[in-house]
Write a structure and sequence with these properties.
The protein is mostly helical. The protein is 83% helix and 0% strand. It contains 8 helices and no strands.
Length: 192
């Protein structure tokens, strides 16, 4: 399942409407989609470093809007849709533990998890289920998602050619490391 979703997401990055596709993937990843927008963000910025800030901005705004949908799922539909999304990823036991941890450290959880490969949808749905302060939630999402996507954009904009050469020469290694980070995020959320 993940391989098909990954292949589909990668094919979107090559299309003329890639910026719109990136917005959709970034939006969906914050509430239910398993593949992070980085799989499109990186090749898009490497291909058009002159548009790095625009690409990162679209990714950030879309992610925050998607986070609001995740929040709404948690706040309004947790017992049906929220639980279904969490169970889809096999994270129900962890979600229960996460609720207790989130209750105590909510803001720090949002800020920390928004920068990591741990599925952000779990954070957004839990934030809604816990009725976390909405303006504070939005502000934290803007800070953490913006920091993540604009840091990637800055690195690729200013060091793009060496990074592109590294990726092209070691594609298998880069792909493997990305998948390890992605899967590691799911594993960390499930077992830690």
């Amino acid at each position: 399942m993940l391989r098909k979703l990954y292949d589909w997401t990668m094919s979107l990055a090559a299309r003329p409407n890639a910026l719109g596709a990136l917005a959709v993937v970034s939006f969906a990843e914050s509430s239910f989609f398993p593949i992070p927008p980085d799989v499109m963000l990186l090749p898009m910025i490497l291909a058009r470093r002159d548009r790095a800030w625009l690409i990162a901005g679209v990714c950030t705004v879309s992610s925050v809007v998607g986070a609001l949908v995740g929040y709404a799922i948690g706040a309004l539909l947790y017992d049906s849709v929220g639980v279904w999304v969490i169970e889809l990823y096999g994270l129900q036991a962890k979600a229960d533990e996460f609720h207790a941890f989130f209750e105590r450290y909510g803001l720090m959880v949002i800020l920390a998890k928004g920068l990591t490969p741990i599925p952000f949808k779990i954070v957004t749905i839990t934030s809604g289920a816990m009725h976390f302060n909405l303006p504070l939630f939005v502000g934290a999402c803007i800070v953490t998602r913006g920091a993540r996507f604009f840091l990637v954009a800055a690195l690729l904009k200013f060091f793009g050619e060496p990074i592109r050469n590294f990726v092209e020469k070691r594609l298998t290694l880069v792909f493997t490391l990305f998948l390890v980070a992605l899967i590691g995020g799911f594993v960390a959320l499930r077992y830690l």
